[in-house]
Write a structure and sequence with these properties.
mainly beta, about 400 residues, eight-stranded mixed β-sheet
Length: about 400
């Protein structure tokens, strides 16, 4: 099976995948997201229109929180090229040529190093469509239909020859890029500053009194952006009272240093939260208060504290929230909690670099490494000779000191 496909767990209702999940049938107002996202690199893939009824379709990218049922073309969770008019969204802005005919090949050029997105129609560039994609977070290939339209489309993420040749610097989307460093004869890696999401194997919990739970708390920890947790109540039972959290267990206490929250729209988003931890679920220590933005990936970095069993997010304010049948309804799509990792160089083997080294220890990004130029001033030792004891200053460009070995793994 191909490494990158459309994701059967990330599609709207009625969407049908076939051909190894590379061909997709999309009914009206439904979308589908690929199973692999990217945060860095320059990537290329192609979408071919195989069959259709109507012209209302968008091809482009989405993030982890993009809704795939009842699509909102102007949501900031999408960036796409619209078939009917050739316009770009969000915003319905004039962009390129219309492209809805069967047999048309749309090339997508995703540049996450510079935050740009470009489309080709049958090999002809339509220009850069968007230059603000880094604000989306992790980006995924996406297709969505609108109005009374259905489409069947075929994706090529790089498992077969492309119809058009990707430009220099772009690689097939299904390719994994890994980095290792060579220090003389030693092969080294440098870990990212945080672990993977630790909310696995424990027990989610949330407020469940004096209000209405419209969706279970487990939904906020299931790594599925199509599900969510929701709780609604009146003013007296929201600010300072409503909460959602995770129990890691008495023998698995965690020292959480970062929490990632994927939020809903402003009507259902608590704008300020407090992060707390506890060992007994009675006495809570407040660690940080932070504002939270709607329809966004919110990152809350926490100060150093202590390993605790329970960690929770508490509603601090309901300013800007809407009132409905449930009162003030708080919705969270996903929550991730991670610990910090001690960062130091790790030797993983000796030269030459092997495929096994890259797969097991290679870094998918260099963004966590600070490789800025800096000025170094050194006081020279004075041993009594002429010219000794002076101060010398020079600029050191760390980018030129490291020999980066890159191997692409199909």
């Amino acid at each position: 099976m191909a490494l990158v496909t459309w994701d059967d767990a990330s599609k709207g209702s009625g969407v049908i995948l076939s051909n190894g999940d590379l061909t997709v049938y999309l009914p009206s107002s439904k979308g589908v997201r690929a199973n692999v996202g990217k945060t860095t690199g320059k990537w290329y893939w192609e979408i071919t229109i195989a069959a259709k009824n109507g012209d209302a379709i968008g091809i482009g990218i989405t993030n982890k929180t993009g809704v795939l049922d009842t699509l909102d073309a102007n949501s900031s969770n999408y960036r796409f090229y619209y078939a009917w008019t050739g316009n770009k969204y969000p915003g319905n802005v004039t962009y390129g040529q219309a492209y809805s005919a069967v047999g048309v090949v749309i090339s997508i050029l995703l540049d996450l190093n510079n935050g740009k997105l470009e489309f080709w129609k049958n090999g002809v560039s339509q220009g850069v469509s968007h230059a603000d994609i880094l604000s989306m977070g992790e980006a995924f290939p996406f297709i969505g239909t609108y109005s009374s339209t259905w489409y069947t489309l075929e994706a090529n993420f790089g498992d077969s020859a492309f119809v058009y040749t990707p430009p220099n610097g772009y690689v097939p989307y299904n390719r994994t890029i890994k980095y290792l460093f060579k220090d003389n004869n030693e092969i080294k890696t440098y870990p990212t500053p945080y672990t993977e999401d630790l909310c696995v194997g424990g027990t989610p919990f949330a407020v469940n009194t004096n209000g209405t739970t419209i969706a279970p708390v487990q939904n906020a920890f299931d790594n599925d952006p199509a599900t969510y947790w929701g709780y609604g109540s009146g003013l007296a039972y929201m600010a300072g009272v409503a909460f959602i959290g995770y129990d890691f267990g008495d023998t698995n206490k965690r020292h959480i240093r970062k929490i990632v929250m994927y939020t809903a729209d402003a009507t259902n988003n608590v704008p300020f939260v407090i992060i707390q931890s506890s060992d007994d679920k009675i006495t809570w220590t407040s660690l940080k208060m932070q504002n939270v933005f709607p329809n966004s990936k919110n990152i809350i970095e926490l100060p150093s504290s202590n390993p605790r069993r329970y960690w929770r997010i508490v509603c601090h304010s309901i300013d800007g929230m809407g009132w409905n049948t449930y009162g003030y309804l708080w919705i969270i799509k996903e929550i991730e909690m991670v610990e910090a990792v001690s960062q130091s160089w790790i030797t993983v083997g000796s030269s030459p670099i092997t495929k096994e080294m890259l797969l097991s220890h290679g870094m998918g990004s260099l963004s966590h490494i600070n490789r800025q130029s800096k000025n170094i001033t050194t006081n020279m030792n004075d041993d009594g000779r002429l010219g000794q004891g002076k101060t010398f200053s020079y600029e050191l460009d760390l980018n030129k000191l490291i020999d980066i070995k890159i191997m692409n793994i199909n």
